[in-house]
Specification:
Growth Hormone, Chain: A, mainly alpha, 19 helices
Length: 414
């Protein structure tokens, strides 16, 4: 009965969800649509250019590492200037064009160069979007961020299916060109319905001055719980980034699956994550972040070990479904927990600092996994990824769960 009650409550919350939240989630869908497309195209790029596993991993690493430079300036703009709608609009424009440039490149050098810019839109989006949701829904922060996280699950579920079918009839380069169409459509919808609404309903009309900003950042950097959660998020992102990079290569090169079937496998992973994300976010609002996060990370490590050890196809599909459910479900819980502990006026910079720090760790994952795969086989890289999640779970045990109300830097007048 408890499970039924939980599902009923989830459906009720979803029906009552503010349209602003759904529109922001739609924009988040496209910022992850392009990366999801590229991960499935990566095996064909590797084959055409004759790249090693290490070079394939480097292409993803350079994308993450280069865009670390975007995080801090984006967060500062959000908190000091407060132009959240403008930053989200720019993020959508910066998402699709670099992939188009990758599609017209014919050497490893030029592909690597343009890959340094493909994540700019994604990293611009998060500080503005997540801080807006944290401010608008303080009592349902976990649920709001979870709905926002459903956006990439939808994009990363549909993109592999569509791309897998398109690869049967066109080259990977033409697929990248066609991939601009969904971005244009979504950008138009958000321009029409979101940005004016967001500016009208924004609660934070003025930004912080420089003294308040740096004082708040100093306070946040001195909080050991936030620093530990940054480490936890980084280890989880290492797992996700490694899987995004090498799971499509394993499915197509090692298992010999067609592009359509490989896309279906990846879509199953994302669909399961789409189901688990709002459930985990809502439960963490009511029963605490730590309990949900510990269960999700531990389950992820177990599923990854099973996935790497057993090679039976039917079990592999089942393991991917469970993997997506647990791995993506814990993501909004970590975000909500950090925002619980951070000054509410620094929502954008908190997201930037947090996202940049975890990206620093996740940027190492593709290169490390590529090195391992070149020497000991690609399945050994999956064992490494399982270990990163297990270490993250041990770190969570050291984090003290505190009040969910974000502290204010400046006392508000009555």
């Amino acid at each position: 009965m408890r499970v039924v009650d939980e599902l009923t409550d989830q459906l009720r919350q979803i029906r009552q969800t503010d349209s602003l939240l759904w529109l922001i989630a739609l924009g988040h869908t496209f910022t992850h649509w392009c990366p999801a497309t590229f991960y499935l195209l990566l095996p064909y790029l590797v084959q055409e250019l004759g790249l090693t596993y290490s070079q394939a991993g480097f292409l993803i690493t350079i994308r993450v590492a280069a865009n670390l430079l975007v995080n801090i300036p984006a967060g500062m703009l959000v908190d000091i200037i407060g132009k959240k709608a403008l930053l989200m609009a720019l993020a959508l424009l910066a998402t699709g064009v670099p992939y188009f440039l990758v599609g017209i490149s014919h050497s490893f050098f030029w592909v690597a160069l343009f890959m340094a810019f493909v994540g700019v839109g994604n990293y611009l989006w998060h500080p503005a979007a997540i801080s807006t949701l944290s401010e608008k829904f303080p009592e349902k922060r976990g649920f709001a961020i979870a709905i926002h996280a459903v956006g990439p699950n939808i994009g990363e579920s549909l993109a592999p299916l569509l791309v897998g079918v398109l690869l049967l009839v066109m080259s990977w380069r033409n697929v990248l060109f066609v991939n601009l169409i969904p971005g244009i459509v979504i950008a138009f919808i958000l321009w029409k319905f979101l940005f004016g609404k967001l500016e009208y309903r924004a609660q934070s009309k003025q930004g912080l001055d420089a003294r308040e900003y740096f004082s708040g950042m100093k306070k946040m950097a001195q909080n050991p719980s936030i620093l530990l959660l940054v480490l936890v998020a980084g280890m989880r992102s290492m797992t996700q980034q490694g899987l995004h990079t090498f799971l499509p290569i394993y499915l197509t090169h090692d298992l010999g699956l067609s592009s359509a079937l490989a896309g279906l496998y990846l879509s199953i992973t994302q669909t399961a994550g789409m189901i688990g994300t709002p459930i985990a976010g809502s439960i963490s609002d009511r029963r605490g972040r730590k309990r949900v996060l510990t269960a999700g990370l531990f389950s992820t490590s177990i599923v990854l070990f099973v996935l790497a050890y057993f090679r039976m196809t039917w079990l592999f599909i089942t393991a991917l479904a469970f993997l997506g459910f647990f791995l993506y479900a814990v993501r909004p819980v970590i975000w909500a927990w950090v925002l619980d502990l951070s000054p509410k006026e620094l929502g954008g910079s908190t997201v930037s600092f947090f996202s940049g720090s975890q990206s620093l760790l996740s940027s190492l994952s593709p290169v490390i996994c590529g090195f391992i795969a070149d020497r000991w086989g690609i399945l050994t890289a999956f064992y490494f990824l399982a270990g990163t999640v297990l270490i993250a779970n041990l770190v969570v045990l050291a984090v003290r769960e505190e009040s969910r109300e974000a502290p204010a830097m400046v006392e508000e007048p009555a």
